[in-house]
Amino acid sequence: MAYELSRFEKMTLLALDELEGKGTPEEITKVGEFEQQAQVMNAVSWLNSKGLVEVHDQERKYFSLMKKSAGSADLPERTALKYLKKVGGKCTVEEMQEESGLGKKISGIALGWLKKKKWANIVKQGGETWLEITNKGKKALRGKGKDEELIVQLLKEGELSEEDIDIYAAKKLLSRKEILKERVEVTRTIELTSEGYDVIKSGIEIKPEITQLTPEIIRTGAWEEAHIRPYDVKAFAPTYYGGKKHPLRRELEEIRRVFLEMGFTEIKYDFIQPAFWNMDSLFIPQDHPARDLQDTHYLRRPEKTEVKGKQVEEVKAVHENGGNTRSHGWGYDWSYEESCRNVLRTHTTVTTIRALSENPDAPQKFFAVDRNFRSEATDATHLSEFIQIEGVVMEENANLNMLIGLLKEFYSKMGFDDVKVRPSYFPFTEPSVEVFAKYGDDYLEMGGAGIFREEVTSPHGIKVPVLAWGLGLERLVMLRLGIDDIREPYKNDLSLLKSYSLL
Amino acid sequence: MPVITVSMDELSRLSNTEPEDLLHLLPKMAVEVDNKKGDELWLEVYPDRCDMLSVEGIARAIRGYKNMETGVPTYEVKGSDVVTEVELSVQEVRPYIVTAVIENVDLNDEILKSLMDVQEKIHLTLGRGREKVAIGVHDLSTVKPPFVYKAVNPLTTSFIPLGYVKEMTLEDILKDHEKGQEYAHLLDGKDRYPLIMDSDENVLSFPPIINGELTEVNTESTRLFVDMTGTELKALEQSLNILCTMFAERGANIYRTTVKYGQKEREYPQLSPLEINISIQESKKLLGVDLSLDEIKSILGRMRYDIKEVHEDTISLNYPAYRHDIIHPWDVIEDMAVAYGYDRFVGELPSEPTFGKPLSSKKTEEAFTELMVGYGFNEVMNFTLSNPEKEFHKMELAETDDFVEIENPVNEESSCLRVWLLPSLMEDLKENRKNPLPQKLFELGDVVEKYNQKTRAAGVIFGPDAGFSKMKSLVDGLTRSMGIGSVIEVKGHPSFIEGRCASVIADEEEIGFFGEIHPKVLSNFELEYPVAAFELYMEKVEKILRSRDTR
Q1: Of A54, A363, B117, B315, which residue is least crowded by CB atoms under 10 Å?
Q2: Are residue B143 and residue B229 in the same domain, yes or no?
Q3: Which residues neighbour B193 within 8 Å (Cβ) at sequence distance 6 or greater?
């Protein structure tokens, strides 16, 4: 067959065949057992484009009474005629107006039609206008005119098409106001073309249709004999998201992957640390503002941790006078009690110094990605609890040039190829570095780095330089997700958690 | 980090540098340009460089950096007969004082502002909020030396404090004066307060609180007396040097003064250079750059060091008395890196190989996460900071006294560390009420229970179909998929409906629990559909897995 026909097209052709080649969409719907007329109309437009059917549109007028009351009473001219007859075939216009019951306005209309239908003559006699019944008028008294019959017919039938009525009478009535109503209807007829007949003659087979596959259909192979109903693939369907890891987790895992690739070992220590590890062992003097209540969370419970070990004396000496290092120290009386106060750690550097203290022999590479706490109010750019990433390298040849090389390598693995460094300051590193990475058109502050001071490393028996760097996880995630409020990831709004893009 | 405001025009003039060049240059010298509005620059100076807390100090550093003048700046200190006697009575209150006289100062509004600015910033940094250093600057022509520094009875001593017209006792100043209220805590517990007076018993200053009205400095003042009192002599000397050299940079004359502690006399300011030695090899090694001796010399000169002597590997250096931050040779080496230029380091990679490994617990945690995502759960991450209301009361639990409690919480919301995960997840459901049901959330995170930090894993199902049996199926599948399997036993838990809560047991140990949340708890979190929940103790899961590995 030359034509590829859909199921509905085939059904339409067969229905037309049954209707002897011609039918309205309604008829085709009925005969062809369609669910909806729209299916027929759709099929017809395809069949038409293939030249298998022709579509004829025919206008037909339908008439009905504007008001039922218009049909139940006589037309005014007939009322006037009846009055004329009653008064002996002649009366004055004035008389007619007053006595016939038509009223002045309607009498005018009646007068016009009496004259038009030639049922009466109007003559002037002795200064008055007279009406005189004509022969045609007398004849009219014996039966209704065609227009009046139409009214009766419509009163009975409601609406009739132009084919079923006297169209001349209808037009006459239409010219009068408020009697008839006209409606135009386009009737569509679908007619088979000779090509259509040929297609039918060559045979049309319609398979049963399947909407939803069932085990039955699959098992029996019924689908082979059937037609699986195609869907409107563009119809709306709500977006469906699956379970996802948290965006912070994904970034965190990416960073862990980079560190592991670069040969770093992961470390973890507790949130609760004595000030000794959080500050003293990092050469942060005991009166440093970062140790104030405005910056650091101290604990009411558990209040302190007794710090022990040979580092305690060494750290004390380094603070007071530089100890065994070449440093002058800070020059104050270091308090053991103060160093035992528990804090919620304020940076991951605690974690790295603890790991180095336990593993003081080079080479070592450690990293940590973990939570830290600051005693500051949370807003769009600050969190009182945040995740920090920190890496350290301890080796004989460690130097500033290596630190900068490491930073470039690390950030490039994180997707930042353009990295700049500037001098900076941290109490526990010297030299200190601030890292900027190009993102879009700007260089963004991406973290800090440096070489641990001798005052930091020496008390732990570390004899070679230690390179260290750190950055905040949340800021990276903000960049990746394009959000500008650092609190957003911790709001755990499912609409974001479900919809964010992994790539 | 301290931020100072300077006039770009003035900095440009004092440093002989074009304004647009300043913006590129400053960051290379560790000064961050925080903001710029018209002629005003907001500059962040790191607290290790208090000598750069003034426009004069920054200009001095720039002139060196740009090789316009190198080496240690020399400042002449002339003699004077201004003496301050320290009485023993201050020993227990505020033991130290240093002083200086500055003359021939052309005090315009610009310089007065710079002076106020640097005082305030030194108070904050080196001064630790005026505790270690409190500065007073006085119009010397209004008073008559010698001065005396002593501790007096706060109830009976009075004078007119700056900004007032009426005499007040020291006691009243602490109570009623703005500065008194702000710094009263520095005199807590002292029964005598420090005071500086002249030979006619006129009060110059009530340190560390307020100066007297008498000695107020204005643009007409030409001779200034500077006092700095505090608890640490070194910090005082450094602060005095920073302030005096700042004036000297403006062409003022600095005069030596005497402080007498009984028979012992000290003279201030001491502006002669200080000494430090560095090793050439160590410098090159720490920087990772092969510098020639000439380069090293040039770099050090630009950072305002004088090379006294080079002997084999050792360079003996002089450095300016205002550099309070140099306590170790590496401090000098950092300066060398700054002068060399951080952007000139090409970078190299570590030379000694190491093999990284993840935390041993990560394998189990990653398996858990993979399983939960597979079950269609969305991961949440919540703060560890919590509060007893959420951890206990809203979960219908009795508050214990062994959770971590913060001494100085920022707010009531964050006054403790969480002891379990489910309250955080309940809070998340509350926040997600506007989103469609069902909702399935999980979290993997640390809690601190009985002061011990532990990793927990938890999940919740929220919606009309959430119930015990669904959760039972899930926990069963979950523990099997994690390679341990589990059995369950009835558990009573006030957060759950009685008879709809169970312990998860593996190797005869409870590794977690699950059940259907009690309607009271649901209402506490304003939830109107059932919630089924589980929480697992990850370190127990870990322990079982390890014991099976070795078996």
Answers
A1: A54
A2: yes
A3: B93, B151, B152, B154, B157, B170, B187, B206
Same domain, B182 and B242: yes
Q: Note whether residue B70 is domain-resident.
A: no
> Which residues of B are less than 8 Å from A259 in CB distance?
356
Per residue in B153-204, pLDDT (tens digit) is 999 999 999 989 999 999 999 999 999 999 999 999 999 999 999 999 999 9
Distance of CA B60 to the CA centre of its chain: 27
**If residue A7 lies in a helix (H) or strand (E), which one and from where to where?**
helix A7-18
CA A456-B49-A464 angle, 5° bins: 25
Question: What per-residue confidence (pLDDT) applies to A286?
Answer: 95
The partner residue sitting opposite B382, judged by closest CB among A297, A406, A490, is A490
Residues of A in contact with B439 (CB under 8 A): 494
Query: Residue B279 domain-assigned?
Result: yes
User: Helices then strands (H, E): number in chain A?
Assistant: 22, 19
In a domain, B351, yes or no: no
Residue A161: both structure tokens together: 């098409």
Q: To the nearest 5 percent, what fractions of chain B are helix, strand and coil?
A: 35, 30, 35
Say what the pLDDT of residue B550 is.
Answer: 65
Nearest CA in chain A to B132: A287
Q: Is B539 on the interface with A (CB under 8 A)?
A: no
Q: What phi and psi values does residue B177 have, to the nearest 5 degrees?
A: -80, 140
Q: What count of other Cβ atoms lies within 10 Å of the Cβ of residue B451?
A: 15
| CA dist., res. B397 & res. A365, Å (int) | 44
B98 token code pair:
């240093």
Residues on chain A touching B374 (C-beta within 8 angstroms): 243
Please check whether residue B338 touches A, CB under 8 A: yes
**More confident: A100 or B88:** B88
- What domain count does chain B have? 4
Whether residues B400 and B526 fall in one domain: yes
Q: What is the pLDDT of residues B277-336, one digit of tens each?
A: 999 999 999 999 999 999 999 999 999 999 999 999 999 999 999 999 999 999 999 999
Span B26-67, pLDDT tens digits: 999 999 999 999 999 999 999 999 999 999 999 999 999 999
Tell me which residue range forms the domain holding B385.
362-550
- pLDDT tens column, B423-471: 999 999 999 999 999 999 999 999 999 999 999 999 999 999 999 999 9
The answer to the question of residue B438 being in a domain is yes
Who among B338, B346, B453 is closest to A423 (CB)?
B338
Compute the distance between CA of residue A290 and CA of residue A294 in angstroms, rounded to an integer.
Answer: 8
Q: Are residues B327 and B406 in the same domain?
A: no
pLDDT at A1: 45
Mean pLDDT of A280-289: 94
B392, B322, B365: which is closest to B73 by C-alpha? Answer: B322
Q: Is it true that domain A248-499 has CATH number 3.30.428.10?
A: no
Whether the model pTM is above 0.90 = no
Q: Which residues pair with A342 in a beta bridge?
A: A274
What confidence tens digit (pLDDT) does each residue in A436-472 have?
999 989 999 999 999 999 999 999 999 999 999 999 9
Q: Which residue has the tokens 């941290």?
A: A426
> Number of CB pairs < 8 Å for A and B?
251
- Band (A73; pLDDT cuts 50, 70, 90): confident
Q: How many CA atoms lie within 13 A of A333 on its CB side?
A: 3
Q: Are B204 and B323 found together in one domain?
A: no
Ramachandran quadrant class, A468 (left: phi over 0; alpha: psi -120 to 50; beta: rest): beta
Would you state the torsion angle of the CA atoms of residues A196, A197, A198, A204, taken in this order, to the nearest 10 degrees? 80
Domain A69-182, CATH: 1.10.10.10
Same domain, B489 and B370: yes
Q: Confidence class of residue A70 from pLDDT cuts 50, 70 and 90?
A: low
